[in-house]
Fold this protein.
Amino acid sequence: MIRVELPRFGRFAAWRDAARSLASARIPAGDVAWGDPDAPADLFGADPMPAPGDAPVTASRDFLDLARQVAHHSDPERFALLYSALMRLQVERGFLSNPADPLQDRLNRMAKYVRRDIHKMHAFVRFHELPSDGPRRSFGAWFEPEHPILEAGVPFFAKRFADMDWLIATPEGIARFTGGQVAFDAPAARPDLPDDASHGLWQTYFANIFNPARIKTNAMRSEMPMKYWKNLPETRLIPEMLNDAPRRVQAMADAGASIAPARAARVTARIRQLPDEGMPQSLGQAGEQAARCTRCELCHAATQTVWGQGDPQAELMIVGEAPGDHEDLQGKPFVGPAGQLLRDTMGQAGIDPDRAWLTNAVKHFRFQPRGKRRLHQNPDGGHIEHCRWWLDLERRFVQPRLTLALGATAARALTGSKAALTPRRGGVEPGLDGGPVLISWHPSLILRLPPDRAPAARAELLADLQTARQMLAA
Amino acid sequence: MLPFAAVEGNASGTYLGRMVTKTLQDKLAILSDAAKYDASCASSGTTKRDSRAGGIGSAGGSGICHAYTPDGRCISLLKILMTNFCIYDCAYCINRVSSNVERARFSPEEVVTLTLEFYRRNMIEGLFLSSGIIRSPDQTMGDIVRIAKMLRVDHGFKGYIHLKTIPDASPELVAEAGLYADRLSVNIELPQDDSIRRLAPEKRPETIRATMADLRLSRDAAKEKSFTGKRPPRFAPAGQSTQMIVGADQASDRDILRTSANLYTGYRLKRVYYSAFSPIPDASKVLPLIKPPLMREHRLYQADWLMRFYGFEAEEIGAAHPSGNLDLAIDPKLAWALANRAHFPVDVTRATREMLLRVPGFGTKTVQRILAARRNGAVRYGDLLRMGAIMSKAQPFVTLTDWHPGALTDSDGLRARFAPAPEQLSLF
């Protein structure tokens, strides 16, 4: 029997070196005993470590990751199991990925417990401030993990608490972080940690963030198992918090509604602005009222009312269908891809978008959520009718000489006619309020057309914009 | 004696009688009590960073829950209000102007100190700072941003910061908040606009949504490289979330899920938190003191998961029951399967990923494993068990080489197999 002694710290690296050497000599797993300082192997009658053999030894990265975790399990057989696994890997490469293999299953379970224990160490170590005479503050903690995980748990603290000195004492040993360097020491008796005023404040926080009206102790116990409670400052409050909860809930019910303090009414009177719902006297007022519009149901899902934008004294008003995704988020009309196309085409026609009034027939985005996106939906007749109130107000205040209707929805809102758009495109019709309405394509239609038809439609939009310019110049 | 805030049962306490100076502990008690109705405590998914090159703290990867209270909620962040003075009068809120709750206000230095001292003792992952509205939204947001800036710039704090964004605050302040915070959140408060207007008269649903839209646009912009290849500064790398109170108005679960779907798709939220309406001390007479509907809250979270990770739409989950509410006795995925049995049983060896995700008892990980295992041969009943499938739930809905549900899928008593037995009324 060959006996390998592993040190208290740096144990995994020592195991890996020994295992690689033994495996290269193809020493069977049954011939090796692994000892560590807590469970020393019987030194009498041990065979000496054989010289390395010349057989190749391979281990996958997955296996090494697994072994590094298993090495921190408390099971005294862990290193023997790992060596058996290493030996099997030499002949049976894929056994670790076979869900039905019992050794694979056992090792993965052990690794899972170790990961969980490390996670709980990161969660439940509580530092106490220690006196310090240097410039760095000093802290200490006592923690009792289930497995010998100290070495594996410490790097997290070294990265997080780099600007202070600290020690974490455990039954397995002590980790000291001094001046930026970690060192490990053999275990010592549990240190006496001084009282720390911040622990009292922490208890205050713990007791007050708790809502006595919702008791769910199972969730608490499964995530914060009671074996960790003894070293946590806050858990000793739990029994009393639970005991007291029914009384507090009853007291709330008994107290019922209260009478508001006198200042409340004064504050509310000062800040609660009753919206002015009288007939708007200006374009700005109309826009403010429209921002609160609930005339149809679209306002509940859309982000905001998208009011018109541009020159309030514009001679040309351009009316689209309704805001799309981009317009809805930004609260401005014609800022998405279709808007870009329109602005480009306006530029080609020699019309400055800032000198026109750009708006939509319907002022809220209509959509259907699908997966991660919002799919655009056309507004229906009801939405157009409800929203005509705002369009009429815009027209009354802007008083454009000419209105360009983009697409069927705008044409319908402005002229009242639902007739097909194709024969009407490029023509001027009388609007419901008497003003001339020039009818064209909506730029989003051009974007949706197949590549062989889009340029012609875009040329028609450009021609209509040029017509608009000529009409206004006349 | 527990270190509770003297919040409950002091309705007679007048304002002037309480002008004595409060200690830090008094303030902490009052301002953590005032913060407990915010459900979020997440600290995951932000940029990876640590203090080896200076400063204090680390973040990135999955967050850590440092403690749990007996209400089953985790404590990951120091969740406090800067102040619980508030000029708004939201009926569901303990801090509304018309409440007699005891008031306090932290100085920015006090918030910074508490955060750092708790952090150094490994009690928290960082700070979740919210506030009542004092004087004006801008004044309040300005103070919140100042605290975050002190932590980040003056103290090199690398931990997690979640800031509540005050709707109506100026865009410049919100933009600055995004530079220091990992997460920003705006609470939608209630699932329906009418309820917001009625119960929170100073808030406006369209303003809340517009603020969320701004946050999304700022995040989108921060992800785009400029044409010189330079990256703009990060903006709230852990995204935005919101919270909705459940059970304070008449909205059905279907209404709630619709609202969630609109929020997720519109503003790319990381999370919508559902908070069962819970009785508060010093209640408003507009809202009844009810037992918080915890099971309903739980079912909503399950339904929310189905929308985010299982490809379900709000409408189909909501349609499983004619009332538009979720079945409290069984989980929403099972309820959907029972209402849509024509799709079942599913042949596990052939079904698409989308359909496997709809099988009750199969989680996203199980489905991943099934797809991997299918490439290597037939998947049997025992394999599914090992892969983590809950076969007691899946049985009626799947066929395998060694399993067929027979008439079970369409049997009348199928729901009864899963629903807990109705509670027997006592005869006495």
